[in-house]
Amino acid sequence: MPIHEAGKSRRSVAVRPLDPKEIAAAYPLARMLAPALDLAAWQRFAGEILNGAPTEERGILAAVGEGGYLCGLLIYRVVHDLRHGRALTADHVLALDIVDRKPVAAALLSALEELSEALGCEALHTGFDTPQESLKAVWEGAGHRKERTLLCKPSSESERR
């Protein structure tokens, strides 16, 4: 996947696949998405996605700021959806910036839409952890709409983590 750059604001944000060598550097972002996540669990999770057989069917995209720092992350996979057929699903979307995270979110969205089209997907599904109104606003402004609600009941074993 080529690097995608967005620079409509003063700051430039590049979005590209997370390099396996950056798994540890991305841990603070992953921890914001899953506060109970420890480094070893993140390394196993991300490693399974990034170090397996090369495929564009699943991956982790990273948003990188001008200074080379990681400022966004999302995990994606291609699924077969009952309503839409081939669909790109993005979970655990995170965009950070001290001043305004909307440019980071816009860059992630643009890269995700480009990837969805390149993979021949009929739909793009995005799941947001916790209320993230400013991120959802970027997606809604690009024509995305709420389609369903996902509920979760952790097993007693996973609640201990």
How does this structure look, described?
The chain is of the alpha+beta class. Helices cover 33% and strands 27% of the residues. It has one domain: Aminopeptidase (3-Layer(aba) Sandwich). Strands 1-2-3-4-5-6 form a 6-stranded mixed β-sheet, with helices on both faces. The termini are far apart. The model has no long low-confidence stretch (mean pLDDT 84).
Q: What labels describe this entry?
A:
globular, six-stranded mixed sheet, 161 residues, 5 helices, 27% strand, Aminopeptidase, alpha+beta
Beta strand %: 25-35%
Q: How many β-strand runs?
A: 6
Low-confidence stretches: none
Q: What's the architecture in CATH terms?
A: 3-Layer(aba) Sandwich
Q: How are the SSEs ordered, and which strands pair?
A:
Layout: E1 4-6, E2 13-17, H1 23-33, H2 39-50, E3 58-65, E4 70-81, E5 85-95, H3 102-118, E6 123-126, H4 133-141, H5 156-159
Parallel strand pairs: 5-6
Antiparallel strand pairs: 1-2, 2-3, 3-4, 4-5
Helix pairs in contact: 1-2, 3-4
In short:
By secondary structure, this protein is an alpha+beta fold. It has five helices and six strands; from the N terminus they run ββααβββαβαα. It has helices spanning 23-33, 39-50, 102-118, 133-141, 156-159, and strands at 4-6, 13-17, 58-65, 70-81, 85-95, 123-126.
